[in-house]
From TrEMBL:
One of its GO terms (cellular component) is peroxisome. Its cofactor is thiamine diphosphate. GO terms for biological process: fatty acid alpha-oxidation. It comes from the Eukaryota. It holds the Pfam family TPP_enzyme_N. This is Thiamine pyrophosphate enzyme N-terminal TPP-binding domain-containing protein. Signal peptide: none annotated. Residues 22-126 form the Thiamine pyrophosphate enzyme N-terminal TPP-binding domain. The lineage of its organism: Eukaryota, Viridiplantae, Streptophyta, Embryophyta, Tracheophyta. InterPro entries: HACL1-like, THDP-binding, Thiamin_PyroP_enz_TPP-bd_dom. GO terms for molecular function: lyase activity; metal ion binding; thiamine pyrophosphate binding. It comes from Vanilla planifolia. Keywords: Lyase, Magnesium, Metal-binding.
Amino acid sequence: MANSTTENTTTLSLCDDTQIDGNALVARVLAFSGVRHMFGVVGIPVTSLATRAVALGIRFIAFHNEQSAGYAASAYGYLTSQPGVFLTVSGPGCIHGIAGLANGTANAWPVVMISRSCDQRDLGREISRSLIRLPPLSPL
């Protein structure tokens, strides 16, 4: 309970004694870094990250496809001079997001794409979800 003589503020700590998963850690880092908006398409590999980001006060703006989310994030970066962050599902979602990422990068607008891979136990089961994303993204 807050002391009545002190201002009641919410603080965000990146490090505490509790164990958290990777999604919660990424959401905390984004919030701690001042990210207030996130664009994207939620799906099984990234729903938890989006949910945790929203719980920390980051507004999630949903799109029908990753390309649109990427363009919105790059435009946000241009208009605000703050990194536009967008979230994609793995595999084809990541590939579709490259257009928006490339747009922001080519114009020197701050943009960040977050795309989660499938669980290790699912590697090789569904090739479209376990595409290696590094080679197409390395120039960006």
